[in-house]
Fold Pyrrolo-quinoline quinone repeat domain-containing protein.
Amino acid sequence: MTGPVIDLGELRHGEDADPLPRPPRANGRPLRCALVLLLVLVTVASAGRPPRRSMVTMPAQIAAETLLADDLFVVLDPNPAQPTQRRLNAYRLPGGGPAWQTAVPAEGRSWGIMSMAGILLVTAYERTTTGQGALSLAFDRETGAYQWQQPGSPIRLADGNLLLQSGDEEEPVSLRAVDPCCGTVRWQLLDAAAHISLRDNGGGADRVVLNQPDGSIEVRDASTGAVLARGNLGAPGGRSPGFAQVVNDLLVFISESPTTITAYGLDRLDRRWSSTTGPVDYVQDCGPVLCWQTRSAGLRAVDPATGQERWRSDRWAWLFPYDGRLVATVLDSSATAVRQLAVLDPMTGRELAELGSWELAHFALGGPLVGVRRHPDGGLLVADLDVRTGEARLRDVLPDAAGICQATAGALLCPRIDGSYRLFEIPD
């Protein structure tokens, strides 16, 4: 069942449209916002109360770490009395019945959980006198039985194995590639680099780039650790050597004085192009274009093959590619998670639609794009965000939900104020 469609903006078509994103309009904006809000309220009221969704309530303490992994809901509950004896609880879905529970014999200030290859990996992060320490512990997904532990935080590899990274900004990075079944080390590099970058095209990392303080670079196969290319990209004359980032098939090297972005082929470090720009905050994949955010000229999008500028704008804070479009947030000073979202044409930067103000639910690669925000009467308003049509389709108002939610193809998992969770079935 599909709920009513809320038109929160306009979808633009036509070759004669302005190729640059239009600036914010001040005239008539308050009236327009009021009319849109009235339209939303009338639409919801005329549609009647949304149909009751199937939902399951599952226990969890406040500040628990959670993971929705296929047919399991996994909860790592805090234990203030015994911080080295946290409990890992698994509940079987869709009914939510207990599957198993086990103790996690580790202490940490922050935690993470991931699922892969038949195991659940719990990572404890602890600040030490020498930097940030991390320890990953593996448990059998079906029984909760303890399997192994290794130092480092986990990175999924394209070949199905794990890369464990130790170290931080204050100490060199060490790498261990391990088999997830038993923790067997396949290859390792101790004190490997000051900084690393990875290429992950959606199926796990397949390249590792080691960046040394003097600007020397090594590109390695993430599955075997074999060196594919070496080079020294540091700036001459004692200037800042810079650092590297990986974006698809490019290694992008950023040096300062002046700030220069130089692109190299990833596997051979063959130079492709170079561009001088203002100070850069980040470089990222924007689908068919390469984007970087500067403090002087705003967001720039260039052709990744030539470095030729396609478009620029000072309106957008951050963006990401989704279903052939770019989803962007409007630049503002708000510290809240609810942001004004827009859909852009990645090749021209032209604004195609406004989706409204939403907080995005966490979703897996290729998963649904779901937006949530507070409902005035309590709970969360949930909508499907369709970047192709530029529409936000109302799904439901979820009672007692407090955000931040996790989205899958057919369900939405949201925390409640008391720390417990509700799993809502969202049928098509």
In short: The helical segments are 29-47. The chain has three domains: 1-24+315-428, 64-192, 194-285. The radius of gyration is 24 Å. Residues 29-47 form the longest helix (19 residues).
